[in-house]
Design brief:
171 residues; alpha/beta; three-stranded antiparallel sheet; 6 helices; globular
Amino acid sequence: MNSNNYQHITHESIKPFINNNSSILILGSFPSVKSREEEFYYAHKSNRFYKVLSYIFFEPLPTSIESKKELLVKHHIALYDVIYSCDISNSDDSSIRNVTPINIKELLDKFPNINRIIVNGNKAKELFNKYLLKDIDTKNIRVRYAPSTSSANAKMSVDKLVEIYAKLIAE
């Protein structure tokens, strides 16, 4: 990896998508270039995140940011990422270094209805376990790990993602 491709990026442009009715928090690793451009989560058209949710909830596939937000609010889902800032090359999770994690304790204190955290993808899982797990009361908040919905995880079919996420959301 050419170090000239690295940028130090903070999560400032994309705030946590969460409200007082949120009960499920889905955490990714860090927003892709496309998500940073659009200032909302899972914005790349090849990411299967919203397709998976639309199948689970028997809802039309949301295509605008507003319709994505409506789907999430309707089903009490909050979105954020494990990383607050890092050095990254483009959208490559494997290039992430110099991580500053989010303050998960502060977030959960502010939104006490969160009773489940679903960690989306292997890099998010690795970083979550390293930086955040110690600050979570796992007696009251169930933590589950799910495969990435990114197209980079091509070996995982949409049907299999739907099956896994449906179980985790229904728990």
